[in-house]
Amino acid sequence: IIYEAESVPGGMLAWGIPEYRLPKKILYSEIDRIQDVGVDIKLNTPIGPDLTIDDLIAEGNKAVFIATGTPVNMKLGIPGEDTEGVIDPIAFLKKYNLEGDAVVGKKVAVVGGGNTAFDAARTAWRLGADVTILYRRTRQEMPANQEDIAEAVEEGVKIEYLTIPVAAFSENGKLNRITCQRMELGPFDKSGRRRPVPLEGSEFELEVDTLIPAIGQEPNLSFMLGKTDIQISRWNTLEVDAETMATNLPGIFAGGDVVTGPATVLEAMGQGKIAAESIDRFLRDKSLVRDYQPTSARLEVPPVQFDPDADEESLRVVMPKLGVEERRGNFREVEQGLTAEAAMTEAKRCLRCDLEGLRMRGGS
């Protein structure tokens, strides 16, 4: 049984990722397949005061997997941050993706350089706003997907690097401008990146009517209701055995962002698969220790032979994309998919890293 707090299944995939990246029809077809094999999804059923983890165990569930993500947005900590017009990026994305009627101003500033920042910026742009992203480091340090960064720039989203907001101001109770400050990169910090240092006297004002702080997210562990015996890290994430995804309590497993902090969907799904295998062993009273055994190929496929000097075969196939002028005002999927012929051509390059090497050395 999946206990889902929202009115739709899918979690962040359903309400956090814009449809131009993940069409809902594809997502819900995958969810239908999960339900078809017998998985029961209870919607509008948050774990909290009315239904606790202890209740789940008491109802006969012999194992529990916690995958509650990181739904709490971090504050900027600047004066004026609580004024009308400063909006939570998670709430903004959720409102549009679930209800389709998120309100955003004409001039929007998004703070941050991660995927959530770019999802919020590109969503606001599609809703007709003039959007500027403020990031305290340079593009090289941006954690967002490089393709998202490039596509946002193509769409007209402006990016002010080495810039932070330091105060927000309102007029008649509504946000109308922010004060920003330029930065420079100083010594390296614990993350291995150079720490941004404010440049004295570099302040400037930016007229905006919406400010979206997207500088980070963290878990909300209030649902645990006294389960203080579950080990929690100093980052407010759940601690698990990385090999099994088991917490320190027997039968309680966890994975995804609630363990790693904000990461990718792929990483969360990978941890879910590991946890499923561990839960299966737990229910069978077997050791949770994973047994790694080498596997042999079921089918030997001879390598495809072709001329590595032929441009059309050695160069990577480019994914066709929706034109920028066609993206404004709608959420149509940007990546249009490959034709069967293009997919087969690209597949021939599989594990042929030498082709890229040849091209870089002056070949095709």
Give the % helix: 25-40%
Give the overall pLDDT as a whole number: 90
How does the major sheet shape up?
A: 4 strands, parallel
How far is it from the N-terminal to the C-terminal residue, by CA? 54 Å
Major β-sheet strand ordering: 7-6-5-12
Which assembly state applies to the chains in this document? single chain
Could you spell the SSE succession in H and E letters?
Answer: EHHEHEEHEHEHEEEEEEEEHHHHH
Count the DSSP helices. 11
Number of strands: 14
Structural class label: alpha/beta
Rg to the nearest angstrom? 24 Å
Shape: globular
Contiguous low-pLDDT stretches (5 residues minimum) are 358-364
The percent range for strand residues is 15-25%
